[in-house]
Input
Amino acid sequence: GFSPLFIAGITFYQIYKEKLTPNYLSIIIVCYFLTVFQLEKDILYISEHYNSQHSLFITNLVMFAIFLLFFLVATNKFTFLDKKIYKSVGAMTYPLYLIHQVIGYILIRDLYYVWPNSSIVLVVIIAILLSSYLIYVKLETPFVKYLKGNWINV
Output
């Protein structure tokens, strides 16, 4: 399942808070390969179940890019972006977490019959990210301001 990603996330946070050690690097490498192994099983299942072709190479490349990005952020090598951007992107992760799996799955499943192409995944990712942004900007931010002003001291 998702345990390697959870463990990798905790380890990236530890690297960010402390420093990169051989043990932390080993954990990240093991988590990466366990994730790739699971993705390959999932892609084979999806390919058979939906009678479609998906590129293992592209999937592994995307996962490598994600792990690399997290590694660069955790080791403070990804500093060319403004800190405000980090905070905004970080704030979007909670609505993203809430909606990505269920809505993403439904969209991919239902749109696949209209658009039977693996590029539908990219379209759904963009739609989910946009939805997450809109939830953060139009719902969460005003609601937090209201709560801070009227109910709680956050």
